[in-house]
Amino acid sequence: MCTDQAWSAARQGSRYPVGMTCRLSLILLFILSAAAPPAAAQRLHLVIPGGAGGGWDSTARGVGEALSRSGLIDVVSYENISGGSGSRAISHLIETAARQDNTLMISSSPIILSSLRGVFVQSFRDLTPVAAVVADYGAFAVRSDSPHRDWRSVVAAYEDDPRSVKFAGGSARGSMDHMVSALAIKASGADPRQLRYIPYNAGGQAIVGLLSGETQLLSTGFSEARALHEQGEIRILAITAPEPVAAAEAVPTLIEQGADMSFVNWRGFFAAPGFPEERAQYYVERLQQMFATEQWQTIRATRGWDDLFLSGNDFYQFLEQQEKDLDAVLIELGLKPAVASQ
Amino acid sequence: MLIGLQTAFTPLNIFMVFLGCFAGTFIGMLPGLGPVSAIALMIPVTYGLDPASGMILMAGVYYGAVFGGSTSAILINAPGVSAAVATSFDGYPMANRGYAGKALAIAAYSSYSGGTIAAVLLIALVPFLARISLSFQSSDYFAMMLFGCTAIAAFSGKGQVLKAIMMTLLGLMLATIGEDPSGIQRFTFGITDLYDGLSFLLLSMATFALAEALYVILQSSPGNDKAEAESASPDSQIGSLKVTGSEFKEMATPVSRSSIVGFFVGVLPGAGATIASFLAYGMERNLAKESQQQEFGKGSNIGLAAPEAANNAASTGSFVPLLTLGIPGSATTAIMLGALLSYGIQPGPRLYVDYPTVFWSVIISMYLGNVVLLILNLPLIPYIAKILQMPRRYLTPIILFFSLMGVYLVSFNDFDLQMMVMVGAIALVFRLLNFPLAPLLLGFILGDMMEDNLRRALLVWDGSFAFMWQRPQTAIIMLMAVGMLLLPMLRSLVAARRRSMPGLD
C-alpha cells in the first residue's frame, strides 16, 4: 500500500527533520482518516480491555513492542477500553467486527471467570481465539515492613482473625485476584468464605493500596509485583506456579509452603467474531516468529513471564478445560450464584 | 542535573519540544482527542529516537495537548478532557464578553506558572515525595472528592443554592448509570449501549457545547444577528493579550496557592489533574474577597487562572509516583511508563540512582515543554481568538459539527449521537430555566471516583463509617469540606447582622 511505503520512507528518514515532519503529517492524516478502515496488512491494533498499567496493558504493550521493534509488524497501536470487567471491550469488538481486520484483543483467564459468573453474557466462544502467548502466575506480597515473612504466617494470622489480613487485588470482586486468594486460603486449610478482598481498578492501584497501609496483603500477577519486589518496596511471599520460576528462584511456591495449589494465568489474543482465517493465521505466524526474536527475549525477561504458546484448536481446547476447572471451583467456593440462570 | 540540562538543550531536542508543542496544541483542540491520545499517537515516532529525545517530544506533545484542550474550552465552551472543565467555567464567559485573547493569555501564563512552581517543588522534594504519594487511603480520597464538590458553591449565587445542589445530585445520579463494580446493572433499562454508563465526552459536549450553541440560536433572531456579531467582537479587544499590572497582582497569590495544591494533588496516584482543578477553583472562590466572588462563573480572572495553574502543576506532580515507584497514576503516565519500559528503563526508587540522566532529562524536558508552549502560543493567540469574530450563524454550526463529530469519532456508535442530542435538549431546558449546568458535570466526574473510593473504604473498615471520624486525615478533609460549604452562609449571616446593627460599625 502506498501508505506503507510512505511510512517506511519516513522510518528511514527518522534522523532528519524532514522525515519527522513527514511522519507527523502522516499521523495527523491518520487522525483525520480514523474513520476509514486501514487496509494495510502490516498494521496491528491492540485493544486492551483494562486500564493503563495493569497486566493486560503491560502484556499487550510488551508484545506490541516486540512485534514492532523486530520489524514483524510495522505499526502497532493500542486502545484501552476499560469497563465491565472487560465486557466493554468485548462488546466493542463484536459490534464493530466488520472493520476490525487488524485488531486483536488481549485477554486472559478472567474472561472465562467473568462469563462463568455471569458478569457478562459473552464468552470466549463469541470471539475468535487466536493464540495464547504468555503464562503469568499469581503472587502474594506484603509491604517490606510487614511482620509476615512467609505464607504460613499469613495463614496463621488469617485463622486468628480474617479481618487482620485484607487482600488487595487489581480486579473486581469474584474475579481472578480474588479467586486465586480464595483458592490459596482454601488449600491452606482455612475457610475461604471469611476472606476480606478489597478490589482496585488496576494492579498498580492495588499496589498503592498495599503500600499506603490500607491492606495487609496483595494478590496480583507475579509480573506486576516483580519490579517492586526487586526494589525492596514489597516482599513476595509466595507464587502460584507449580515450580519456582526462573525469573525469581528465591520466591517459594505455595506448594513448597504446604498449600497444594497452583494457578496459571494465560494471556493471549482474540479477534472479532468471523475473523478471516488467513488473517488469524497471519498473526499466529507473526506471534510465533516473535518468540525467537531478541526483542521478545529481553521484554519477557524484564517482565518475568513464561512463554506459553497455544494456537488454533489447541488454544480452544485449553480454554474449554480451564473453563471446566474454574466452574467447579467457583461453585465450591460459593462465588457463583447458587441458582445459575443459564 | 547538569547532564540532564545538557541533554535537554541539544538542537535536536529543542526542535523536538517545538514540534511536540505545536502538534499537541492542534491535536488537543479537537474535542475527543486529549493528551492521552496525543501521546499515544507519538509513540511510534519516538522509536527512532534515543530515550531522552523521545521523552522530550512526548512532554512537548503533552503540554501542547493540555493547552489545546483549554483553548476549545475557553473559545467554544467545549472541554474535551475533564481537566479542562473548570477552565471553561470562567474562560468561556470571559471570551463571550469579548476578551478571548486575554482569556487565552491568562490560561497560558497561569499554566506556565503552575508548571514552573511544580517543577521547583519536584526538584526540591524528590526524596520525600514517594512517601507523600502513598499517604492517602481510599477514605481520604473519598473525602477529597467530597471536598471537590464544594466547588459548586461558585454557581450558587443568590437563590441558586438549591438549584446548584440539585444539579450536582443529578450529576452524581448520572454517574451511577451502567454496570456497577460488582456487575449489577443500574438504570440501563436493558440497553446494551448504556452498560458502560455515559461517557464524559458525551455529557460534557452535550451539556456545555451543544446546549450553549442551541441557547445562542434561541437567543438571536434574524434581525439582530448582525448587531450581535458586532457586539460580540468589540473591535480589537478580542485578539488582545493585554493583562494589566493590577490584574497580574490580583492573580499572583491565587496562582501560586493553586499551583502548590495542584502539585500535591497530582502526586497522589488516585487523584489527578481534574480533581486538582476543581479543588483549586473551589478554594480560590471561597478565599476570594466578596467583590471578586461575584465574578466567579461570569468571567473572573482568578477563576480562570486558578484551575489552569492547578491542572498543570498536577500533571507535573503525577510524574512522581511514576518516576519514584514505577506506578502510573494516570492514563498519560501509564503510556509514558510503557515508553520508558520499551527503552529498557524500569522506573522505581532506583531510577534516580541508576539512570540520573533519564530522570533529570525527563524533569527538565517537562519544564522545557512549559516554556516552549508559552513562547509558541502567545504569538498564536490573536489568530486563534479571531475564530470568535466569525458571525454566529457560521460559528454555531461549526461548533455543533465538531462536538458531534468528536463524540462519534471516539465511540463510532450512533446511539451516542442520539443520546447526545437528547441530553443536549434536556440541558437546554435547564439552561433556559436558569439551572447551572457546571455542577451537573462536576457531580458526574466526581461521582464515579467517589463511589469507588467509598466502597473500598467501607470494605477496609469492615462496613463501618467510622473512618469519617477515626482516621485523622479523612476527618480533617471532611471538616474542610463542611467548612467550605458553611463559609458562605456564615459570611452572609455576619453581613446581615452588620447591616441590621449599623451602630456597631
Notes on the protein architecture:
By secondary structure, chain A is of the alpha/beta class. Chain A has helices at 2-12, 17-32, 55-69, 87-95, 110-116, 151-160, 176-187, 203-211, 222-230, 277-292, 294-303, 312-333; strands at 43-48, 75-80, 103-108, 128-143, 167-169, 197-199, 217-221, 234-239, 264-271, 306-311. Chain A is built from 12 helices and 10 strands. In chain A, strand 1 (43-48), helix 3 and strand 2 form a beta-alpha-beta unit. In chain A, helix 3 (55-69) runs antiparallel to helix 11. The relative contact order of chain A is 0.16. Chain B has one domain. Chain B has 22 helices and 2 strands. Chain B has helices at residues 2-8, 11-29, 35-46, 51-76, 85-133, 138-149, 161-175, 200-219, 225-232, 245-267, 273-287, 290-293, 301-317, 319-325, 331-342, 351-354, 356-385, 392-411, 414-432, 438-460, 467-470, 472-500, and strands at residues 178-179, 185-186. In chain B, a hairpin with a 5-residue loop joins strand 1 and strand 2 (185-186). The chains are: A alpha/beta (342), B mainly alpha (505). The interface between A and B is large, with 69 and 58 residues.
Detail the topology: elements first, then pairings.
The complex is a heterodimer of chains A (342) and B (505).
Chain A: H1 2-12, H2 17-32, E1 43-48, H3 55-69, E2 75-80, H4 87-95, E3 103-108, H5 110-116, E4 128-143, H6 151-160, E5 167-169, H7 176-187, E6 197-199, H8 203-211, E7 217-221, H9 222-230, E8 234-239, E9 264-271, H10 277-292, H11 294-303, E10 306-311, H12 312-333
Parallel strand pairs in A: 1-2, 1-3, 5-6, 5-7
Antiparallel strand pairs in A: 3-9, 4-7, 4-8, 4-9, 4-10
Chain B: H1 2-8, H2 11-29, H3 35-46, H4 51-76, H5 85-133, H6 138-149, H7 161-175, E1 178-179, E2 185-186, H8 200-219, H9 225-232, H10 245-267, H11 273-287, H12 290-293, H13 301-317, H14 319-325, H15 331-342, H16 351-354, H17 356-385, H18 392-411, H19 414-432, H20 438-460, H21 467-470, H22 472-500
Antiparallel strand pairs in B: 1-2
